[in-house]
Amino acid sequence: MNLENGHPPERSGLLAAAMPLALLTFATLLAFANAWPASLVLDDKAFAGPGRAPELDSLQYMFTQSVWDWISSGLGLYRPLLLLQLFLETRVFGGWLEGYHLSNIFQHLLVTLLLYGFLQFLLRSTGGQPSASRFCALLAALVFAVHPIHTEVVNSVFNRSDIMVAMFALAGFWWLLYFLDRHALRAWAGLAITYFLAMLCKESAIVIPGLAVILILMVKPGHLTSRLRQCLPVLWLLLPLALYLFMRANALVPPDPETLAQATAGSTMPTMLHSIRLPGFENLLDAFAALGTAFRLVAWPYPLQLMHGDSSTTESLLYTGLNLGLIIAALVQVKRRRYVFAAGLAFFYLAMLPASRIISMGGNANPHFAERYAYVPSIGLTILLAFALRALSQRLSPRALARIALPVLLVLTAVTWARNTDWRSEASLFGADYKRGLRAEATLRWMTSAHLKAGNFAWVVKICDDNLAKQEEYGGSAYVQSCASAYERQHRYEEAERAHLYAIDKRNTRVAASMSLAHFYLRRARPLDAEQRFKAAIDWSGDPADKALNTAEMIIALNPNNREQAIAARGYIEDALQHRPGWPKAETMLKAIAKGLNTSPILQIPGESRRQGQEPDLIPGLIH
Question: Is residue 501 part of a domain?
């Protein structure tokens, strides 16, 4: 047996293959070692842990309804495989919140390992030496593994859908390119399956066929015409796309039984396709700004900024110039028959197209950027990095490249650690934006709500005092309700009343704000003022169910010890349920009245405290 350095060749080969995988695993787990807290933030609370919606336990619901149908938000997101995965994890983790975060981390690790293998395959397919391909693929995959721009996707349970799309996309691309010359039918069939599964994870996966074409044009040898000919079977991917669109259309626009036959024929499809909004000239500048923001954060992802607002005109012009410069450079490279730079850039742009809402399906959202949008597009930039490292390896030794890469990786890991810390709570998460001077409504709303739930009333009051003008501007926001609550807890009753009045001034929140102010007056022993506010809210209530329930709430609040009035209130609640069957708030109040009539003469609205100065547990109109 021939030996090399005292080890059998087979063992040396296995070690060479295993070491990069071990290093990638170590680096990924190290970067996100503090990313599994015993807490959930933002949308995660609705989809994981013990507080999740009970409807999400229904397999039928997952595949036949919008993600948010259970709260009727109308966001139109169809992600059944994401819901299915979370459904299965609740069976495993239950209330152990750390488990959901650990699942995110390990799925990100799986994507990183897939990307490493795929990069190595690409480099070898284009003439790279095995050892150099392995080393350059490793360095590029390490950057992807620890890059701070991925902290939102890894830390957010709900936003793991981007990780799932990347997983299916990479598996499909690798399968396609591996079998394309050997067995074309098998190659495209495999991609079709992963394409369909990726779309069931998140809508942005719809661009995968275009990304596959880009990779074929980049990797395959021969004349451009022959490479284009190899791409023609991509049209077969219209079949899984049509199936997905049919499922999505019927989930988002569910037909009634009388029109089921028409829906089966696809009558809901035109409705959905009609909602697609293409960018006009007026928002192309916003589109370039969103793309430019993504490039900036890839290059320098510090500090954390959760809410990326509108860019200034100067910034938008600079980002437009940056993008145009990159596009021109890519065209120059294509003219010289060098396709890697253009392909990597095209991959990034195409993957960003749906994610950034440059093209959107429904709604009026303008192009904007959130860091989760960059997860799949960053694969294209990582491909560029791998090929750039291969070019550098022809001039520098592996040791020199490692010396350059090591401090970069350490800095990126440190920034990722800091960002993971910010993601541990909503207060710290939105506090990062607040510290940067951002005063958007969403930032103030979420941060004050988070501090209020944590009992940090002094913090809420300080934030509200520092942003007095914003209270009037955002009068219809839950931010103002949080200010009112915190002021009352701190015995600053005039400021609390003023905040309530700001909310009443806004038409869309005046009913809930007036009800809330009425309860505030009751706690301040001002029953006449409270009655006036109750009646105003009832007069403003346009929906009969709301009017009836608000009337019942007024009767109970003003007459907590009167059985006759409680019986009258019960009649109003039953009337509300006639107009809106199954209304949880009405049913809860009805049960409370029944219990009070049977056990005690003292009645109380659920969540409302009668003790002076004590804020109710549930503030009417406060949206969490």
Answer: no
